[in-house]
Amino acid sequence: MMKAENNMRELIPYFDSDNASVESAEDFWWCFETATERFNNATRLRMVAARIRGTVGERWRLNSRLTVFETLKRRFYNRFIRLTKEQLLQRLFDATQEPDELVEDWGRQIARY
User: Fold this and answer.
1) Cα angle 41-34-63, degrees, rounded to a multiple of 5
2) pTM metric for this prediction
3) Which residue did the predictor score with more confidence, 4 or 104?
């Protein structure tokens, strides 16, 4: 199992928590979850610890007592993927409707936030 773990670890990119955007966090998590779906909880927790870089991620990981993968998944989402209220408001304020864009289409675009 150790060889398979090392091989998977090489496929998963590093996650730079200090400079991460929501999109890069989503990409990392998708790649990580897909690559490790056949491993047990302990192995997955070790692998995510090995792939997170940056002081924000290291501090987050060291302050979290994680024993179950679902807890890790929820906490990673809440910390790195979910937008803060300020980020959400900024995206809404920055969203502009094009002159030839229908109101319904623009509304669907805004509803994604």
Assistant:
1) 45
2) 0.68
3) 104
